[in-house]
Amino acid sequence: MAQDNPTRFDIALRAARVAFNGVDIFHDLDLTLQAGSFTCLLGPSGVGKSTLLRYFAGLVEGDVSGTITCSDKIALTGRVAYMAQQDLLLPWRSVLENVALGAVLRHEKPDYEKASHLLTEVGLRDAANLRPAELSGGMKQRAALARTLMEDRPVVLMDEPFSALDPLNRLRLQELAARVLRGKTVLLVTHDPLEALRLGDHVHVLTGSPAQLQDAITPKGQSPRNIADPEILAQQAELLGQLGAERSEGGA
């Protein structure tokens, strides 16, 4: 069972509330990330998806309340790898140095061999010695993904990690993420229902103001799934229906 593995544990968010300038983004929000599962979060722009992701990362400031508890009774702090929407690459360091940056910041010896392997995995082997300014937007996102995978944490939080990629690279890196992150507890924010269904064990839609989570959709089989599967396409229609209902009610 997952609880027998010390690197795998359920994460329970309870009664979460975040407000900015007196306006609730969400309140009384509950979400459990099951140990070793891949959870995807959909929703319209501005509804609070990134805010919820940052809540799990401990990065939300302002009027915040609620609790996060882990089933192994150990604090989540220090056990999370977080990939923001922005690549956050240091412009004065090479791509290789950026991928290995976490170890440097922790005053540890960087494993450049592992970093080089991950750059090969994301298709950036020949860009290892370049500076971020020499990269395209999609290449920067791939470098940021490699840096996130480099951290090898039991919990991974990702904010639209494939949004800047062309369709072929998006599919290839979805497959890489599904393989490398298998067994980790993942929360991924995306605007793409098919991406969520291809990768996620549990897919939630966040809607409303204040935002609420809809009941999860749970695709069958192991990721990455075949997006042409009729059942996946039917679930895509269900998700689009939830998102469309939000728009028709005036959601942002």
TrEMBL record:
Keyword ATP-binding appears in the UniProt entry:
yes
Q: Which domain of life does the UniProt lineage start with? A: Bacteria
Does the record's keyword annotation contain Hydrolase?
Answer: no
UniProt GO molecular function: ATP binding; ATP hydrolysis activity
The record places domain ABC transporter at: 7-233
Supply the alphabetized keyword list.
ATP-binding, Nucleotide-binding, Transport
Q: Which family does it belong to?
A: Belongs to the ABC transporter superfamily.
Q: What is this protein called?
A: ABC transporter ATP-binding protein
Please name the source species.
Thalassospira tepidiphila MCCC 1A03514
